[in-house]
Amino acid sequence: MALHYHWPLKQLDISNAFLHGTLDEEVYMTQPPGFVSSSSPHHTSTTITVLLVYVDDILLTGNNPSHLQALIHQMHSTFAMKELGDLSYFLGISIQAVGDSYFLSQSKYASDILLKAGMTSCKPCPTPMSMKLVDTPAANLLFHQPQLYRSLVGVLQYLTLTRPDLSFAVNQACQYMHAPTNAHFALLKRILRFVQSSLSHGLTFRPSSFELQAFSDSNWASDTVDRKSTSRYCVFLGSNIISWSAKKQPTVSRSSTEAEYRSLAHATAELSWLQMLLHDLSLSLVTTPILWCDNLSAIALASNPVFHTRSKHIEVDCHFIRDKIASKKLLFYYIPSTEQIADVFTKPLSVARFHYLQSKLLVTSPPIRLQGDDKTLSASHSASRLPASDCSASSLPASD
């Protein structure tokens, strides 16, 4: 919103916050029905102010700069507060303004992860997962430092806030935290070596339209242990990715169509929630959200109102999606698998395919501003030409 409308983005910090404070007054997030202000009985306004609060960290934006300053001044009179100026660093995420765009990254956080793992000097690799599985007797033995594995996987989850290209690999690593093996730790080290090759990478946000579209995909029976499928989707607002997910399905799907349909239901629910959020932010969508799917059978199932014995076990998901289609709140379109962006969340990919989809997610290296020039260049990392040999486990710390 701020980029599209060229609104200022201010950052505030409350000096002393209490997580368990007691409220003695009723607080209304919206005006209660029937309320009339005695001072402004006929009040209406075109001023929009958005306040984002995370514990004691605050972001403030809106369409009236003078109103923002008045609000900040009023908050100063009530709270012990620091005004940090224009947005630059928030919750471990660096925000770099370049021209009319924002570049979000967690390069310092990623460096700290490598330091924690003792892998600051490891050899980088071009992708987070290998397409070849290692199956040896030693690989199936339990890893001798499970606490280290769990700790590293935990911190990697937060890194996916600006690195959707890591989501599938981290999701896979998360599934073995109860009893990781040497093979699982090798997978984790591969992720860290990819992080080493792309330390400066992040997300680029550009001014764009307010059109919602999502890409949904699944990997049927991909887990060789329990044969559960995985649901994947990513959502774009205009050209900017704003939401993504990689999650194992809770039940076993009996067909690829069923697995795909469950993934479509998850994506549909996310689109519905985002529509409500945008409405609360006074943003009206001029076009119907689009959901792209590469499974023709799942699209046919969404359009066919007839149930039979092979589909009644997923009837709830069917009704949910069909209700959105019938009310014209959602459009379904087919997309070839070669152009399915959500494919990056479903399985290990070749270097060329991974980098192609990574660029579609707008995960790039930071732009470089030339001195005395408004133009920017992108610092490219030739990760595909980097050696792929592993770093030795001896460089890891003895304890977490």
Task: Please describe the structure with a list of short key phrases separated by commas or semicolons.
single chain, 5-stranded antiparallel beta sheet, 5-stranded mixed beta sheet, disordered C terminus, 400 residues, Nucleotidyltransferase, domain 5, 16 strands, alpha+beta
Number of domains: 3
The CATH architecture term of the largest domain is: 2-Layer Sandwich
User: How many E-type strands?
Assistant: 16
What's the average pLDDT?
A: 82
* β-strand amount: 15-25%
Radius of gyration, whole Å: 24 Å
Q: Strand order of the main beta sheet, please?
A: 5-6-7-8-14
The ordered string of helix (H) and strand (E) elements is HEEEHEEEEHHHHEEEEHEHHEHEEE
CATH topology of the largest domain: Nucleotidyltransferase, domain 5
Q: Considering DSSP H and I runs of 4 or more, what fraction of the residues is helical? A: 25-40%
Sketch the major β-sheet.
5 strands, antiparallel
Number of helical regions: 10
Structural class assignment: alpha+beta
Distance from first to last alpha carbon = 41 Å
| Low-confidence parts | 370-400
CATH C-level category of the largest domain: Alpha Beta
Gross morphology is globular
Mind telling me the CATH superfamily name of the largest domain?
Answer: Ribonuclease H-like superfamily/Ribonuclease H
